[in-house]
Amino acid sequence: MILITGHVIMTPEHREHAIALGAEHSARSRAEAGCLAHNCHVDVEDPLRLVFVEEWESVDAVRAHFAVPASGAFVAEMRALSPEPPVIRIFAAEDVTAKLMG
Asked: What would the mean pLDDT of 69-87 be, rounded to a whole number?
């Protein structure tokens, strides 16, 4: 599984628009092949920080997601709305729940 985490800092004047864009992007992404989960959250400790958590079946699914024109447009629009570049981290992950929780 591929796990992606990311965040973008919002400005107060663009906060509602950025949240709407994030929710729309997550909903669209969940419909893509290989997407196991894609969610957008407002950080409860920093209400101007929008956080993304994604789970994908494979690297190929992530590559296909990044190739979708709407994904590139989303990143470009978020960059334009934010005073800082978005942060993204991509991990290869193994679900060890059963091993730890029995």
From this structure: 96
Burial grade of 98 (CB within 10 A; 0-12, 13-18, 19 or more): exposed
- Residue range 58-71: mean pLDDT, rounded: 98
Strands (E), the chain: 2-9, 35-42, 49-56, 87-92
CA distance 96 to 30: 23
Give the integer Cα–Cα distance in Å for 56 and 89.
13
Question: How far from chain centre, in Å, is Cα 98?
Answer: 26
- pTM of the complete model: 0.92
Q: Is the pLDDT assigned to residue 49 strictly greater than 90?
A: yes
Domains of the chain: 2-101 (3.30.70.100)
Closest of 82, 91, 67, 66 to residue 5, by C-alpha: 91
